[in-house]
Design a protein that fits this description.
The chain has helices at residues 2-21, 30-68, 88-100, 110-118, 128-136, 151-165, 185-196, 207-216, 221-232. It contains nine helices and no strands. It has two domains: 2-65; 69-249, Cytochrome Bc1 Complex, Chain D, domain 2 (Orthogonal Bundle). The protein is an all-alpha fold and 252 residues long.
Length: 252
């Protein structure tokens, strides 16, 4: 209703510019034109308010993103994965999972537990679509490669992953499979190991996580390294580099 009214205001404002220019105060049009002028003033107030709300929402998203960067950057103490450039649908999905306890409730999984605790500080859920869109539109950063493995063996193993994540690891929203060609290798390795140990994908409502847990359950450490090493070769060249802190997560 508000959007329709604003559009009507904008149209009426243009129509009345011509009407006011030919306004005859002595004619029978005095009253209707006077009402139009009042309506036009009301429209101006609404439009100004809408602009202020849009600016406020944008500013709020930027503030939220700065909060995210306490962990999701290349200079923080608690190293979280880089998330710039991940698709909006996936970012929003993960925010929902953390907020509902599907992720982030196991204290043994320290990084996820911290995120599960922090989610309460990141505004209302109505802010998350805008926050997810903001992060998705940020340029992806080039990660430093820290995991070493066998490319050909990794390629062969990845064939079973490609049915969901795609042959070039670009992901598939319909299947709920995120892209893997924009993530850091240490993080991918860490997540596969967490799926294998049921530290992730344990919640009964996490259907995608359950699938990943089943896939990872039979993988050896060596196979995980090979898959991740192959995924590194699919990453698109981008500007900027990630932090070498990722090395502390990947002991080859």
């Amino acid at each position: 209703m508000r959007v329709v009214l604003l559009r009507r205001c904008m149209n009426v404002r243009l129509e009345n510019m011509a009407l006011i220019a030919t306004f005859d105060p002595m004619s029978w049009r005095v009253i209707p034109c006077g009402l139009y002028l009042v309506f036009l003033l009301f429209c101006e107030v609404l439009l100004a308010e809408e602009k202020a709300l849009d600016a406020s929402a944008e500013s709020n998203v930027e503030i939220l993103w700065r909060g995210c960067q306490l962990c999701h950057s290349t200079i923080e103490m608690q190293r979280g994965p880089m998330i710039e450039g991940l698709p909006q649908w996936y970012l929003h999905q993960q925010l929902e999972k953390f907020s509902t306890g599907i992720r982030g409730k196991l204290s043994e999984n320290k990084s996820e537990w911290l995120m599960g605790s922090a989610i309460k500080q990141f505004g209302d859920s109505e802010d998350w679509p805008r926050l997810a869109a903001y992060i998705a539109n940020l340029p992806a950063l080039e990660p430093l490669r820290t995991v070493r493995g066998n490319h050909e063996k990794g390629k062969a193993l990845y064939a079973m992953c490609a049915s969901c994540h795609g042959p070039m690891a670009k992901g598939n929203q319909v299947l709920g499979a995120p892209p893997l060609n924009v993530q850091e290798d240490w993080y991918l390795r860490e997540q596969l190991m967490k799926y294998r140990s049921s530290m992730r994908g344990y919640h009964p409502q996490d259907l995608g996580g359950a699938t990943m847990r089943a896939v990872a359950s039979s993988l050896t450490n060596e196979q995980i390294k090979n898959i991740v090493f192959y995924l590194s070769s699919l990453q698109k060249p981008v500007k900027g580099r990630g932090s070498s802190k990722g090395q502390s997560h990947s002991k080859d």
